[in-house]
Amino acid sequence: MQTENNSILGETIAMIGTILGRELDEIMIERAVVGLFFTGVKLSDGTAGASATPLKSIPEAVCCPSSAMAMPFPGKLHGRRAFDLAREAFSDHGIRRAVGIATVNALADLCWQRRPHPEVELQAGVDAFDATDIRHGDKVVVVGAFVPFLKELKRRGQEYLVLEQDPATLKADELPFFRPTEQAREILPDADVALITGATLVNNTLEELLALTRTDARVTVVGPTVGMLPDAFLARGADVLGCVRITEPDAFLDLLAEGGSGYHFFGRSAQKLVLARLPAAFDTRAA
Predict the structure, then answer these.
(1) Looking at residue 83, what is its pLDDT?
(2) At what angle do helices 94-114 and 8-20 cross, to 10 degrees?
(3) pTM metric for this prediction
(4) CATH assignment at residue 16
């Protein structure tokens, strides 16, 4: 499991502490929801954050083990100090980890409002795919069966490979491009473009995946699990972050509780955002 000293989450939590300082003493959890696809939290200042819910990786998703008592009941989180709950991002318990990451992302949004990153441009209402520089003839690797990206790659006639743990998530016309995730070490170093689902942050593989990409590759990390403090992502080679800003926290959490996904909350209770590395900052990445 990641530690606070050597991971994206650890560095992000430390930076939250630096940016918000004593303000963190007053920021509490107001509401938390563990949904079928996403987990979300709302803070006492009205800011909210989300994370993928890692159902496939947790034994508690199968009825009805005694270990289910260890799962955090969202109703009991009300009034807890948000910065304390953020440290659950290091838990080896899937649901606790998701709640922790959602809290980190809520605090990260607040940090962006206090201190935007000088080497990053925020683009509102932009899809991360459109913000990624994909050129004809590029070797494109998609990590995770991210349906909107696969659909657009097929529409463009762009060649690609998809690294995925479960081939059952792919359609019949996508299976020829499937490669098991165990082949990441062979495939990612050859990629000109890497499109990585933010859910890899929950399953603790994102750092390794980013380390496998070339310094000249164009790397996008996307999904509600990706927060708005880009520093640690940029330091590891990401160029575009596809994030989410939750605009109507209670409506958003209601949707999660009903099993909703991006098809239901984008354009309603949440907005797509892109954090893109400014061109001048690419020289720093290559160095």
Answers:
(1) 97
(2) 40
(3) 0.90
(4) 3.30.390.100
Map residue 48 onto helix, strand or coil: strand
Position 1 scores a pLDDT of 44
Q: Which residues of the chain have pLDDT under 70?
A: 1-5, 56-75, 280-287
Q: Compute the distance between CA of residue 108 and CA of residue 43 in angstroms, rounded to an integer.
A: 12
Residues 63-86 as b or e (16 or more Cβ within 10 Å = b): eeeeeeeebbebeebeebebbebb
What 8-state DSSP symbol labels residue 28?
B
Phi, psi of 30 (to 5 degrees): -95, -35
Tell which of 51, 82, 114 closes a domain.
114
Q: What is the pLDDT of residue 69?
A: 45
Looking at 87, 114, 141, the residue that finishes a domain is 114
> Which residues lie closer than 8 Å to 217 by C-beta, 6 or more apart?
191, 192, 193, 194, 237
| Count of beta carbons in the 10 Å neighbourhood of residue 176 | 8
Shared domain check, 124 and 109: no
What per-residue confidence (pLDDT) applies to 35?
93
Q: Is residue 31 part of a domain?
A: yes
Q: What is the pLDDT of residue 111?
A: 97
50 in the same domain as 13: yes
Residue 172, classified by CB atoms within 10 Å of its CB into exposed (0-12), middle (13-18) or buried (19+), is exposed
Range of the domain at 75: 8-114
